[in-house]
Amino acid sequence: MKKTLCLFALLCAGLAQAADVPVMNVPTVNQRMKAAREAIANADWRNAQYETKKVISEEPGNADAHNLLAYAYRKQERPDLARAFEHYKIALRLTRSTRARTSTSARPIS
User: Which residues of 68-97 are buried (b: 16+ CB within 10 A; e: fewer)?
Assistant: First the structure.
């Protein structure tokens, strides 16, 4: 009985301590995309790159994120055209594959 009571007390103490730990608010993909668009609107290329890279790390197949990252690379003070075109190509490939999956089959005109 004493063992059970001690274990219960330890468990309660651990839960009480866990309640005091602050919860990290990790931005969602949508929040990061919004932040990237705002950064682009303000010509804050570094922050736009940061946010879009975070989105791409979570969703590698996000064509919009690749497109925005490419734009930020292209528009920064010293454009990085190699990286820009790399991400534009990825965005195009992703967009084409998405369209191919969602489009209806071609029907001959009668």
Answer: bbbbbbbebeeebeebbeebbebbeebeee
